[in-house]
């Protein structure tokens, strides 16, 4: 017997009256649509306004599309609402960039300390072994308690074999000039013939002491590693990977051309960091993920979380009396530029450091909610939020653990030093050097944790908004969705 899309009227549940008779029956039988009648135009889901008219009666339409893809989840109205929030924010970021854009960083006289010294490239041309006693400047044998680290090192330098390296300067006005460098046996860095090194230059020193080896030239292995990274990203990510690399390059440009020079010029580090981080966020997210409502929701979630991090960071850095001046590098910066607010610089670092992980969390949560909606368009915003937050809990656990371990790994030598000193946990945590990292980690982690429910709620509200009501015809291709859940109707709300 030939099966028609519509069977004769039969008793139905009350909540089926707003849908075509064929929907409930077809879903119940496990079929998406009945076999088409050769004499009729091919179609799916031929519903009637009343649900009980004859198959060919007035109001019956056969012109439905066969596209089964999900309907556009965000209406034009919602896109306008999102634009009304993001356009003024983007305009404010652009104004901030223009107003705070640095001119030329104030010059200073080089101190010759740490990184604040002139450097040149050089090559070790020859290395010979010599007696440490023969190159000892004082000519005497050191005395002292050899049970101490200093005494043992001095005795080893007197009795051991040192290396005398000849180094040739390869750049600068003294290119081709050579000098000698004595390498003690207990030095961590030993020189080898043919090795490329970095030498410091001090013009005010005596001629024979103007140059000294300070580091090894690592440009080639670093460039090779960067090339391998770029190739891996492009091979796996393809076009998206290329855009991610471009966004990474733009982020470094914003950091080096705007954020750092503006802080050196005397602008407020917190304001500069907020403007710069916002610019990086907008460029990176839209460049990598496209100009869409989905990306805009991720941007909003990131912005809210960054604001929370800024407020908490400012509160606890002030409350804990953290100065931001905890090591030689920050001390040198403060000495060269006393006007820089070092605590503000610390807060700026917290914001910029949290931005990269925040982008990952907000984009992932937004994409998860969008995919959940596409898998089941009948799910309301509460269902989407509950499902998305379950995904987010796993993300929270992994991201927070990653952040804490990243900071702990960076501070491992410091923690080892405290362990050697047998300091208590309270003493270690109370020291400013460690307390600074604790505040940085915990404030950033709070922002990351908060970004999950905030972004998930925003995405669920946006993706489920402006859906057709029970009396409004749904867009083409959206009606077959209830069959995904095994029901012949869309759940009423």
List the helices and strands and how they pair.
Layout: H1 21-28, H2 76-100, E1 118-131, H3 149-159, E2 161-169, E3 178-183, E4 196-201, E5 211-216, H4 219-264, H5 269-289, H6 293-319, H7 328-336, H8 342-375, H9 381-410, H10 412-420, H11 425-430, H12 432-464
Antiparallel strand pairs: 1-2, 1-4, 2-3, 4-5
Helix pairs in contact: 2-5, 2-6, 4-5, 5-6, 5-8, 6-8, 6-12, 8-9, 8-12, 9-12
> Total helix count?
12
Task: State the distance separating the first and last CA atoms.
Answer: 39 Å
Shape: elongated
| Secondary-structure content class | alpha+beta
Largest sheet properties: 5 strands, antiparallel
Defining key terms:
493 residues, alpha+beta, five-stranded antiparallel beta sheet, 12 helices, disordered N terminus, disordered C terminus
